[in-house]
């Protein structure tokens, strides 16, 4: 049977299996089930493994952290990495978020696009490949992840417990044509303690919601004379509002929110607030802290004043976002999210940034890091995936690098390939999430051909 015909023949079973999976609320929960991520996630894993067995594949379950099914018998393994956990449904739905309803050519429900739809498209692509009878020299493993949305602890467990690593593979949890570069992502937290003196005292400082979100608002409450407060109100810059209080003044700075991977698309309200505060007659440690944040961070988005404005031709420049700040009369705490280019290393920027903050009296209080990912365009994996995409869509394929991170970072030798086509609206994590039946099947066809070309 021709591979294309074999894929088309899977549509009814694929839709039924996807609907069954969507009806399982696989949101991570701390319950008393004994399973790593809760009963719902485990039920979703069990359903996927049972479906794979019905498709004729051998299955494995590594301690309920990750399961997989395989086809073929070669020593080298090609992997498809997908996940069955989903984000909470949230508000604003017009349909049952866990109903799996098919309406107007769309499958609706949480996970249909991210990532259950692509996972089952990959499963039935494997089934079609098996039924086509095409010879393979490499094994294919479809991995069912369970913790992508809340940290990828599933894949850390898989690697630390001796899970086999693929020769190469992809995750249908990103975009087409193919993402061959993902910037390194660092979240870092600092504390600055200080004593206060002089005519202006900081009472409260606040701004931002998360390190990877450009803050749209920030505020400070000050204790000062009425004269200083009135002068500040008179000279306040654009997008800064000053309100007189009994003790002094409240300053509210406005910005423009944006994702931390593209901070240049926003305006940082914390930076704007620091630049306003530095004009006041502050003294001592607090003055030094404000001067540093206003001068070395401010509203910059590339880390230039901190000395970490790295750049490469593949992914562009480093981005930096001062995401949150909280403080009072004795200390301030802040969190920064920065992303370095795909051909660079954390050692190229982290020591420089730390030294700058430490010399300004800040203490490091926390850090997390996801390494950059980069697979050269001329590699077998990228060349094969681009060729398949072009042949199946008729569209030009050029690899892309992104500032965000995908599930590809969880396992070595994996890149993101689909399921979102250029021009598609973003619908994952939103109300009324959906995947079109036509594009679900298109994904299945692309995945089937990609697996064959990689494994033959």
Automatic annotation (TrEMBL):
<dbReference type="Pfam" id="PF07687">
    <property type="entry name" value="M20_dimer"/>
</dbReference>
<keyword id="KW-0482">Metalloprotease</keyword>
<keyword id="KW-0645">Protease</keyword>
<keyword id="KW-0378">Hydrolase</keyword>
<dbReference type="InterPro" id="IPR001261">
    <property type="entry name" value="ArgE/DapE_CS"/>
</dbReference>
<dbReference type="Pfam" id="PF01546">
    <property type="entry name" value="Peptidase_M20"/>
</dbReference>
<keyword id="KW-0862">Zinc</keyword>
<comment type="similarity">
    <text>Belongs to the peptidase M20A family.</text>
</comment>
<protein>
    <submittedName>
        <fullName>Dipeptidase PepV</fullName>
        <ecNumber>3.4.13.-</ecNumber>
    </submittedName>
</protein>
<dbReference type="InterPro" id="IPR002933">
    <property type="entry name" value="Peptidase_M20"/>
</dbReference>
<dbReference type="InterPro" id="IPR010964">
    <property type="entry name" value="M20A_pepV-rel"/>
</dbReference>
<dbReference type="GO" id="GO:0016805">
    <property type="term" value="F:dipeptidase activity"/>
</dbReference>
<keyword id="KW-0224">Dipeptidase</keyword>
<dbReference type="InterPro" id="IPR050072">
    <property type="entry name" value="Peptidase_M20A"/>
</dbReference>
<dbReference type="InterPro" id="IPR011650">
    <property type="entry name" value="Peptidase_M20_dimer"/>
</dbReference>
<feature type="domain" description="Peptidase M20 dimerisation">
    <location>
        <begin position="248"/>
        <end position="331"/>
    </location>
</feature>
């Amino acid at each position: 049977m021709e591979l294309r015909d074999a894929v088309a023949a899977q549509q009814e079973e694929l839709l039924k299996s996807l609907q069954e999976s969507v009806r399982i609320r696989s949101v991570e929960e701390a319950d008393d089930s004994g399973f790593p991520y809760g009963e719902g996630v485990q039920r979703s894993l069990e359903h996927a493994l049972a479906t794979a067995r019905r498709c004729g594949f051998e299955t494995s379950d590594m301690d309920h952290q990750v399961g997989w099914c395989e086809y073929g018998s070669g020593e080298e393994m090609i992997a498809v990495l997908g996940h069955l956990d989903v984000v909470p449904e949230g508000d604003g739905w017009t349909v049952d978020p866990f109903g799996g309803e098919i309406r107007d050519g769309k499958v609706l429900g949480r996970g249909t696009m991210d990532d259950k739809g692509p996972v089952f498209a990959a499963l039935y692509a494997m089934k079609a490949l098996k039924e086509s009878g095409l010879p393979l020299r490499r094994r294919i493993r479809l991995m069912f992840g369970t913790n992508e949305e809340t940290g990828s602890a599933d894949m850390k467990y898989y690697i630390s417990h001796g899970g086999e690593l693929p020769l190469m593979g992809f995750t249908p949890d990103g975009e087409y044509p193919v993402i061959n570069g993902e910037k390194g992502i660092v979240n870092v937290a600092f504390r600055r303690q200080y004593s206060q003196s002089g005519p202006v005292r900081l009472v409260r400082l606040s701004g931002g919601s998360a390190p990877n979100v450009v803050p749209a608002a920030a505020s400070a409450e000050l204790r000062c004379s009425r004269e200083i407060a009135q002068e500040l109100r008179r000279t306040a810059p654009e997008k800064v509002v000053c309100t007189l209080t009994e003790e002094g003044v409240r300053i509210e700075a406005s910005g423009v929110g944006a994702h931390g991977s593209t901070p240049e698309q926003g305006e940082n309200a914390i930076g704007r607030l620091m630049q306003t505060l530095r004009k006041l007659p502050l003294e001592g440690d607090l003055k030094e802290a404000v001067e540093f944040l206003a001068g070395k961070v401010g509203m910059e988005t590339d880390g230039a004043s901190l000395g970490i404005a790295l750049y490469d031709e593949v992914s562009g420049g480093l981005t930096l976002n001062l995401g949150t700040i909280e403080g009072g009369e004795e200390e301030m705490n802040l969190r920064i999210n920065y992303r370095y280019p795909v051909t660079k290393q954390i050692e190229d920027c982290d020591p420089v940034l730390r030294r700058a903050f430490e010399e300004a009296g800040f203490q490091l209080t926390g850090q997390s890091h996801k390494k950059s990912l980069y697979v050269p365009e001329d590699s077998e994996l990228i060349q094969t995936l681009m060729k398949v995409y072009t042949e199946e869509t008729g569209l030009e394929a050029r690899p892309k690098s992104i500032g965000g991170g995908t599930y590809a970072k969880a396992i070595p030798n994996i890149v993101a390939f689909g399921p979102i086509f250029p021009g598609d609206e973003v619908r994952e994590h939103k109300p009324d999430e959906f995947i079109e039946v036509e594009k679900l099947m298109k994904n299945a066809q692309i995945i089937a051909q990609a697996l064959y070309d990689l494994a033959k």
